[in-house]
Amino acid sequence: MTIQTKIIIALIPIVMAGIAAWIGYRYYAYETEQNKVRVFQETALNAYNAYAGGKNDEALKLYQEAVALYDKDDRSLHSIAALYRHKGDMANARKYYARAYELNPDDFEAGYAVALVDHMLKDYTKSAGEALSLIHHDGPQIKYYRLLAVNMYKTGKYDDAYGYYAHIKASGQYEGDELLAPLAQAYEKLAKKPAAKEIANEYKVTNDIAQLEKLMARYQKEGYDMKALRTAQKIVSIRSNHDGANRTAAELYVKHNALLEAMKHIENIAKHDGRTLEIKGAGLQRIGAFAPALEAYERSYALKPSDDLLRAMSICAALSGDIQKSAKYMAILEQKNPYMAHQLAYALETKAGIEHTKADKLIYLALEDWYALVCKLKGCEDTAQEAKGA
């Protein structure tokens, strides 16, 4: 027996022990994370029940524990912010409203709450800027004008304040409002009442299609979905068969679960390219129409193949009862992206009600690491990202 062979034989137990230790660590980390999720869900539910039962102090304590575990759940963030606001702790209320708004720029309820709390904290300049931003991004709601007007009045910009108040007054809303009372009294004393003043949104001041297309693309890039949607709708109002605007509107409606509206825009698209068909498939899948969703995905895949589409087709085929077709797409996915296929197979088993033992989980985690390494070497994740950007 050569020295090299002896060394290899001696290293085998060490390597096996290392692999066993790594698998044990991965399982521990996985179970720790899963337990953290379970604890968060249980704590947040207990907090909600306490809040609903009027036990505000208990609810606040529980929400604090929940948010410490996971600070990306919008419902918990809104609730803890509201509890702090109820206690008069505006600094902490703002902190959690701002966190919710940061996570989702289209959570305008949180954005309005931030602006309102800043007004309560007497930071009128900041509150005015936030109200103006809300008008630009969410549209000309009177409650935003209300906040903008009172902040302008507080900072001594009376001409603007009176103009915005005239607009509020013309709407017939907020009559006798306590927040507007000082401004309303000052306005009524004016000998000459100023004309109503409104904010002109960028997409409202032009009918030029090319300019509107640029605005729509910019809003999407900045993450302002509602503003992008309204711009798309304006383009469609000018040119009903504008494929780009209809596609953008459909995609945003699917994203926000307004599926019937999404389908209307999809039907207005003259040429259903790969992306349009993928959006259609996503909408149908969301409402549980798995067979027609599968058909849309298949047509999309024929035009623009991607790992994500293979995954979606395998899921829809399985959920529509076509196990043979699901297995077919899974096999193709395994060749292209074994990491994604491995995760999908486990998820489908879980969806089907299969109970996974500790041994199953250990094998799953070990293989997940192995397939992740294989994918990294093959570049399949990069290919998937390129397909998404296509």
Could you characterize what this model shows?
- With 390 residues, this protein is mainly α.
- Among the domains are: 99 residues, Serine Threonine Protein Phosphatase 5, Tetratricopeptide repeat (Alpha Horseshoe), CATH 1.25.40.10; 119 residues, Serine Threonine Protein Phosphatase 5, Tetratricopeptide repeat (Alpha Horseshoe), CATH 1.25.40.
- The protein has 20 helices and no strands.
- The C terminus is likely disordered.
The count of helical stretches stands at: 20
For the sheet with most strands, the description reads: none
**In percent terms, what proportion of residues is strand?**
under 5%
CATH fold annotation of the domain at 272-390 = Serine Threonine Protein Phosphatase 5, Tetratricopeptide repeat
The top-level CATH class of the domain at 272-390 is: Mainly Alpha
Distance between the termini: 57 Å
Helix content bin: over 70%
